[in-house]
Design a protein that fits this description.
Distance between the termini: 96 Å
Helix content: 40-55%
Largest sheet: 7 strands, mixed
Structural class: alpha/beta
Number of strands: 17
Shape: globular
Length: 645
């Protein structure tokens, strides 16, 4: 084999095993260069993938993938894994329309043992695979790779607990980079610090320090003792925690030392039962901008690889930016307002709130269900909690929304970011189910703004509503609408007629309203008069506005960036049915019964029929259907009359 480039001849883990061990650091360097060069163009999860390059090389050097199962928790760190498992040539298509996914997908490669995208699933899935292996008398290894941040999720702890109890041959690799997305919070990540700051330990430490300093060269000895304390904390205490859970604990292992990693993984063959290997890595390793700012480079857009500076970002503030300023303003006015996030402080726009009101800001870690019930407790005691969370992650707290918030009619506000098509992160992250699963819950009210000005008004309305309210808004830049300067709200449960028309009624919600307006302009050019309604509320719907319009126009098209099953269009149909209204023509435009893959939002909207062109086509169709039926109806009446005569 030639010295460089080595990746060109590595099409599988079997090829990697042929590389001389002393040449593996060169492979790692090439992997990093490839990842940085491509993610700079496509965007993606950079810092996490750079942090596990050596670990990935070691795993594939030691284990026999795909026979041995490697499950990547979350999966955003699996870029090097994809390159080493036959997808190097396809890697430039990462997260692009028709290209490879940014997460492991079992449909993409047999080396992707389990599809991931949300955190905390790897240990449970790995345990299931280990049990299935034992039932068929298999001998393959099963490995779960999980970050320290993901261990704060309840699902991960549940899997960790049962796997320790089952005593199956299972390897859990704890990738400890001291970050999850925002820095780790919670009891588990603080366990070691508490152990070392307990009363008994601190008293003992002070006595030892005093004795050492009284001796010759005491200051020097005290410094040595301090280093010993740090070693004790790193090597002894975490082992006790995992040993108590039933694991053989190994580590911590330097996560960028290939020799140490390979030796450790090879030695695992001699250990029976569940093993936890504690690997310490640096997020963003090998790329200075990512090492300096791992939170920014967790999920980054296109950037200049030479400087790390973003490129192509628009000047219009995003919906997240607008929410960020609005929630700080409301907190300034009302001391009851508190903010909660689940390890996504920066992503949800709460960084400014955290800085302005640190005692009223709560990051609960990757624990969405806990975040919602925690908010319910705050609301019960008179606070107004605003839970800022991505749509896709709110799915993980469905029971708590029903049982702990809505059943008790507690005034929790859900600020749901990334509602609708989010783009390149793909099927695991599209926010396409929230309108459906939230509107079915009694006592829940649900709004969606058509622009950033409406977002500000709706947030103020929700904070003052005194009941459970959800506001769902999209990812990305706003429309440039002027932000209200005063304390404006929206009328409760009221939509807005934006365009008059007589031939067809277009009813949009949230981001689809602007698309409906564009469609109405095009229809007008072609002789079709379209009325446009911004529903504002998915629940409650504005019956006083909608029913007369439906009765007068008779042809209705609803548009939503959500699955059609149980969504906004279904809500409008249910409203009409309840009031005995049966328009001759009714069309729902939205996401059909399928998962939507990755691509740009524009590409996905075109694929899903959520463009103004598609709305125009549907509007023409129902207008034409109505007109074409008139002659046939008249012919039928004429025929019957002739028979009677």
């Amino acid at each position: 084999m030639t010295d460089t480039p080595r990746l060109a001849v590595i099409q599988s883990p079997a090829d990697l095993k042929k590389v001389p061990r002393d040449k593996l650091p060169g492979v790692a360097a090439e992997l990093r260069e490839t990842i940085v060069r491509n993610v700079a163009r496509t965007g993606g999860h950079l810092a996490s993938s750079l942090g596990v390059v050596e670990l990935t090389v070691a795993l594939h050097y030691v284990f026999d993938c795909p026979r041995d199962r490697i499950i990547w928790d979350v999966g955003h760190q699996a870029y090097a894994h994809k390159i080493l498992t036959g997808r190097r040539d396809a890697f430039p298509t990462l997260r692009t329309f028709g290209g490879i996914s940014g997460f492991p997908r079992i449909s993409e490669s047999p080396c992707d043992a389990f599809g991931t995208g949300h955190s905390g699933t790897s240990i449970s899935a790995a345990l299931g695979m280990a049990v299935a292996r034992d039932l068929r008398k298999g001998t393959n290894r099963v490995v779960a790779v999980i970050g320290d941040g993901s261990l704060s999720s309840g699902l991960a702890l549940e899997g960790l607990n049962q796997a320790g109890h089952q005593k199956r041959d299972l390897i859990v690799i704890l990738n400890d980079n001291e970050w999850s997305i925002s820095q780790n919070v919670g009891a588990l990540s603080g366990y070691l610090n508490r152990m070392m700051t307990g009363k008994l330990y601190t008293s003992f430490r002070k006595r030892v320090e005093a004795i050492l300093k009284s001796m010759p060269h005491g200051a020097f000895l005290a410094r040595i003792a301090k280093k010993s304390e740090e070693l004790t904390k790193g090597f002894i205490v975490p082992g006790l925690l995992f040993e108590e859970l039933g694991y053989t604990y190994i580590g911590p292992i330097p996560g960028h030392d290939l020799d140490a990693l390979i030796r450790t993984l090879q030695n695992l063959e001699n250990i029976e039962g569940p093993v936890l290997v504690h690997v310490v890595t640096s997020k963003g390793k090998g790329y200075a901008p990512a090492e300096a700012n791992p939170e920014y480079f967790h999920g980054v857009g296109a950037f200049d690889p030479e400087t790390g500076k973003g490129v192509g970002k628009g000047s219009t503030p995003s919906y997240t930016d607008v929410f960020s300023d609005a929630i700080v303003g409301l907190a300034r006015e009302n001391p009851k307002v508190v903010a909660i996030t689940a390890a996504m402080c920066g992503g949800t726009g709460l960084t400014k709130f955290r800085e302005a009101y640190p005692d009223r800001f709560f990051d609960v870690g990757i624990a969405e269900a806990h975040a919602v019930t925690f908010a319910a407790g705050l609301a019960r005691e008179g606070k107004i909690p605003v839970v800022a969370i991505y749509s896709t992650f709110l799915q993980r707290a469905f029971d708590q929304i029903i049982h702990d918030v809505c059943l008790q009619k507690l005034p929790v506000v859900f600020a749901i970011d990334r509602g609708g098509l989010v783009g390149a992160d793909g099927a695991t992250h599209q926010g396409l189910f929230d309108l459906s699963f939230l509107r079915q819950i009694p006592e829940m009210s649900l709004m969606a703004p058509r622009d950033e000005a409406e977002l500000v008004r709706m947030l103020r309305t929700a904070v003052g509503a005194g009941r459970p309210v959800a506001i769902r808004y999209p990812r990305g830049s706003g429309t440039g609408a002027a932000i209200p300067s005063g304390p404006e709200t929206v009328p409760w449960g009221k939509g807005e007629l934006l365009e008059e028309g007589k031939d067809v009624l277009l009813v949009g919600i949230g981001s689809t309203v602007s698309t409906c307006l564009h469609a109405a302009q095009e229809l007008r050019k072609q002789g079709v008069s379209a009325a446009v309604v911004d529903a504002r509320f998915v629940k409650p719907l504005d019956a006083d506005l909608l029913l007369p319009l439906v009765h007068r126009i008779g042809r209705v098209v609803t548009v939503e960036e959500n699955i059609l099953e149980g969504g906004f269009g279904s809500a409008v149909m249910e409203l009409l049915e309840e009031h005995g209204a049966h328009p001759p023509r009714f069309r729902r435009i939205g996401i059909r019964d399928r998962f939507v893959e990755h691509g740009t939002p524009a590409q996905l909207r075109d694929q899903c029929g959520l463009t103004s062109e598609h709305i125009v086509s549907e509007a023409f169709r129902i207008c034409h259907e109505g007109k074409s039926l008139i002659p046939s109806i008249l012919d039928s009446i004429r025929s019957r009359l002739e028979k009677i005569v």
